[in-house]
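queue> pop job 88
queue> type: inverse folding (structure -> sequence)
queue> payload:
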């Protein structure tokens, strides 16, 4: 194990810096908030649902009626020195027969950036709360089902960043980050302390030649033990044309985590960026590490009424790093336009999260999305895949999620919804897995929304959930308002 005593010696400095950033950020927030444009949206929904198999049992089916009250709000602010997107919606669940399952599910997505001192200093803050499966390989139903396999996962991060210019030759930045991940029921809570430094060439002086020096370090503390990651690299690139740039890099990394012994070595790789049109972009790179090869691809293409996007990555990571891979609420449409999210609608729980512990693994992750805007409707399709390879173990894990959603404006005051989602998890100790290692579910949902007035809507929906050994039918009536 390779230890970095710098974290022990300078932890007080870290705390002091973050406290200072918080104080500065608070004063700055008060000063710049009045100069920002603010929008405050309030939402509330009251639903009553009948389920014919609330516990998702194969033989002993139990029906139940439950009510859910979801008040929420969305706060958005945009200004020269401040950007804020905050959405919060607690969901209060009350079961008629199984009152012991009454609870409150918190859903939160908060993102804020404050820019100070002529944009040389910025402070990013984020926080989230969401429902996740405790064991995604035993995932059944959703958050409303009584399976004792759902919990709330909380996260936060604060990251001050200092930028400066070294004359006309280069630009430098120094960033710090402190974050935390917490689980309401089961899991290994953790804190992380990180720092990064970048020195990059200024194109006004070096023209098409690109160079840079990058260094980063992070310490993650768990209830028992810790992991450490540090690396240094140099990058050299060239802008071949206005549309194409290539780069190469090399460096050294020194890590420390329990699942492997030899965790340091040289790294090298390369990549390219291609932007044939303002609506199309592609970035691809590969890296060679002591544990093998990693790679990443980012693609986006937009037309007037449709957009394609896909990302692929293979990297060394952990469960805590993947918690916020998918936001709780989206403040942008699939087309990149700002929007006010509907915080009262039920959130789909993903099965691509890892078991909530301190394990380090190599993850292949693919996310793809397509959106089509039609004259009276919007069609979205998404695919998510993840495969985890645990170092020193024959245990592999994978998860696949596919979804299609379509909304259609039937008339001026009536709209319809149809959604189909399929998911599968696979956990095996051999290359060829058996059916017992797999867990599948298919969910179909259809619904209607009737606009009663400018602020009030009446909702009706039917949902079918079908798994390997269960089937559930749900009927929901509800009323929602926003103002």
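queue> result:
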């Amino acid at each position: 194990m390779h230890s970095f005593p710098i974290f022990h010696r300078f932890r007080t400095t870290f705390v002091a810096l973050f406290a200072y950033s918080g104080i500065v950020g608070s004063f700055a927030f008060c000063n710049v908030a009045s100069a920002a444009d603010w929008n405050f949206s309030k939402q509330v929904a009251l639903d009553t649902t009948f389920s014919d198999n609330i516990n998702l049992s194969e033989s002993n089916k139990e029906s139940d009626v439950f009510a859910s009250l979801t008040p929420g709000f969305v706060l958005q602010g945009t200004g020269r020195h401040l950007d804020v997107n905050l959405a919060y919606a607690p969901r209060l669940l009350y079961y008629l027969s199984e009152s012991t399952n009454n609870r409150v599910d918190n859903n939160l997505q908060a993102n804020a950036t404050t820019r100070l001192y002529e944009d040389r200093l910025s402070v990013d803050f984020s926080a989230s709360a969401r429902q996740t499966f405790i064991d995604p390989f035993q995932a059944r139903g959703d958050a409303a089902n009584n399976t004792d396999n759902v919990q709330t996962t909380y996260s936060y991060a604060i990251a001050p960043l200092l930028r400066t210019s070294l004359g006309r030759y280069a630009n430098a930045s120094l960033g710090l980050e402190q974050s935390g991940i917490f689980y309401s029921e089961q899991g290994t809570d953790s804190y992380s302390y990180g720092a990064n430094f970048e020195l990059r060439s200024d194109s006004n002086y070096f023209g098409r030649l690109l160079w840079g020096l990058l260094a980063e370090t992070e310490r993650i503390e768990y209830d028992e033990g810790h992991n450490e990651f540090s690396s240094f690299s140099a990058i050299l690139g060239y802008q071949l044309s206005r549309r194409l740039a290539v780069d190469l890099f090399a460096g050294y990394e020194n890590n420390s985590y329990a699942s492997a012994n030899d965790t340091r070595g040289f790294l090298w790789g390369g990549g390219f960026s291609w932007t044939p049109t303002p609506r199309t972009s592609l970035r691809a790179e590969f890296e060679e590490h002591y544990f093998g090869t990693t790679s990443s691809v980012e693609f986006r293409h937009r037309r007037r009424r449709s957009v394609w996007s896909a990302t692929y990555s293979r990297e060394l990571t952990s469960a805590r790093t993947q918690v916020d891979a998918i936001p709780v609420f989206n403040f942008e449409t699939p087309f990149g336009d700002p929007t006010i999210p509907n915080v009262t609608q039920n959130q789909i729980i993903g099965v691509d999260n890892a078991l909530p512990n301190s394990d380090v693994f190599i993850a292949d992750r693919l996310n793809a999305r397509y959106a089509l805007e039609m004259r009276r409707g919007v069609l979205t399709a998404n695919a998510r895949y993840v495969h985890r390879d645990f170092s020193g173990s024959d245990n592999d894990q994978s998860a696949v999620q596919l979804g299609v959603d379509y909304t259609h404006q039937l008339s001026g005051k009536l709209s319809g919804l149809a959604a189909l989602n399929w998911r599968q998890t696979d956990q095996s100790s051999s290359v060829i897995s058996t059916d017992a290692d797999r867990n599948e579910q298919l969910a179909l949902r259809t619904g209607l929304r009737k606009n009663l007035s400018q602020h009030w809507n009446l909702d009706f929906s039917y949902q079918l959930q079908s798994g390997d050994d269960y089937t559930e039918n749900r009927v929901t009536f509800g009323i929602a308002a926003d103002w």
